Amino acid sequence: MKLNYLIFLLSFSFCSAQNLVKNPSFEEFKFCPENNSQFNNNVISWSLPNKGTSDYYNTCSTFLNDKNPHGYQNPQHGNGYAGIVVYYENMRNTLKDYREYIQGELKDTLIKDKRYVVKIRISLADKANFTINELALVLTNQAISSSKDSYIDINNITIDSFTYKKVNFKYKPFYHIKDRWMTLEKEFVASGFEKFLCFGNFNSDLKTEKLKIDKHLFPIESYYYIDNISIEPVSLYTFQLEKTYTFKNVLFDFDKAELLDDSIEELDKLYQHLEENKTLNITIYGHTDNVGLDSRNKELSEQRAEAVSNYLISKGLNPERIKWFGFGADAPITTNDTEENRAKNRRVEFKLTEK
Q1: CA 122 → CA 160, 214, 299, 319, distances in Å?
Q2: Average pLDDT score over the chain
Q3: What 8-state DSSP symbol labels residue 91?
Q4: I want to staple 227 with a disulfide (CB 3.0 to 4.6 A). Which of 3, 76, 185, 329 is the partner?
Q5: Within this chain, do residues 152 and 261 fall inside the same structural domain, yes or no?
Q6: What is the pTM of this model?
Q7: pLDDT at residue number 341
Q8: Which residues cross the membrane (predicted)?
Q9: What is the pLDDT of residues 253-311, one digit of tens each?
């Protein structure tokens, strides 16, 4: 049975359904590439930030195989991937600091002070002569547009009101793997302006740490394939879709349906989770023990489920995304023969579903 998971762990598991990068593995394109330099004006939601000539590869093309001067690689995900020059050695000095990048767009601007994780899959090309040990993702408030084909000096961008955040990936010894894909991964805290992303080597030739590993005659460069880029929110909980969970701290006074103050923190976190995952709906279930009249237990369970729902709606949740039900004492999770067991049966639950 295939299970769908929403992952919200602090450091090592993440929700794959919430990738904020548009066209993250370059599957959407206008025409099948049949030559070099066919990334720009072709791959949907992606562009080039300078005059470099980044490449696009797709299994629809014969160019992917023996015609590729950089060597062969299978896509890491799907059918498409990109390729960029991150260092170029030119003996005649006619292409000093030549660089290629790829620039994409996010589905939404990142939320200020929220933690995200970025993952980028790379593979050094078979015929690369050099490997380097530092690449970077630059997140910006607007697209970069340089009239040069040299490296982008991110500190000297002259666009009005330009703002950026740089996420560095530095690896010792070097990013040298050719026979498979490796994942660059790092967490960062958003500043609240990030809408575009740009990936490549933002160092000059002089500041690029490189290692010569091969002696191919041409081209004399460091060249990497790129695939499956993701930026996803990091949060504190793990939830499985279609599974019912019991609130741990949603509390009420005896025979009352007003939320106690201790309930707010857990509900606020759940609301934030729902805001970050707009494709989710939630259902709230109220339950009681078997003490008292059945009619009153049914009424009380409905009122408590409604109180939770109304709180989430008051925070800003669209009412169309939430439903609530009360079951009284009809759905116990244990017997009602002790006070401890009755306390377990007095509960409010929730379940998350995809729209």
Answers
A1: 32, 19, 58, 43
A2: 89
A3: T
A4: 76
A5: no
A6: 0.65
A7: 87
A8: none
A9: 778 899 988 889 889 989 988 988 888 999 999 999 999 999 999 999 999 999 999 99
Report whether the peptide linkage leading into residue 75 is cis, meaning its omega lies within 30 degrees of zero. Answer: no
- Residue 169, burial from CB neighbour count under 10 angstroms (0-12, 13-18, 19+): middle
- The CB density around residue 339, as the number of other CB atoms within 10 Å, is 9
Tell me, what CATH number does 218's domain have? 2.60.120.260
Distance CA 119, CA 339 (A): 49
First to last CA, the chain: 21
Question: Residue 278 and residue 318: Cα distance in Å, rounded?
Answer: 10
Residues 176 and 309 in one domain: no
* Digit-coded pLDDT (tens) for 134-164: 999 999 999 999 999 999 999 999 889 999 9
| Token output for 91 | 């003996």
Dihedral sign (CA 31, 37, 43, 49): negative
CB-CB contact of 226 with 182 (8 Å)? no
- Please give the full DSSP string across 161-222, using - where no structure is assigned: T--EEEEEEE-SS-----SS-EEEEEEEE--S---EEEEE--S-TTT--EEE----SS--EE
Q: What is the pLDDT of residue 350?
A: 96
The per-residue pLDDT for 237 is 62
SS3 assignment, position 123: strand
For residue 56, give the amino acid letter: Y
pLDDT, tens only, 96-134: 899 999 999 999 999 998 889 999 999 999 999 999 999
CB contact at 8 A, 96 and 150: yes
CA distance 23 to 228: 9
Domain boundary among 215, 233, 251: 233
Amino acid 318: pLDDT: 96
Please give the distance of CA 230 from its chain centroid, rounded to a whole number: 4
Counted residue by residue, the chain has a size of 355
Single residue among 209, 233, 257 that ends a domain in this structure: 233
Sole residue written with tokens 């260092």: 87
Question: How far is residue 309's CA from residue 94's CA, in Å, rounded to a whole number?
Answer: 66
d(CA 347, CA 49): 54
Range of the domain at 217: 5-233
User: What's the number of domains the chain is made of?
Assistant: 2
Which tens digits make up the pLDDT trace of 180-203? 999 999 989 899 999 999 999 999
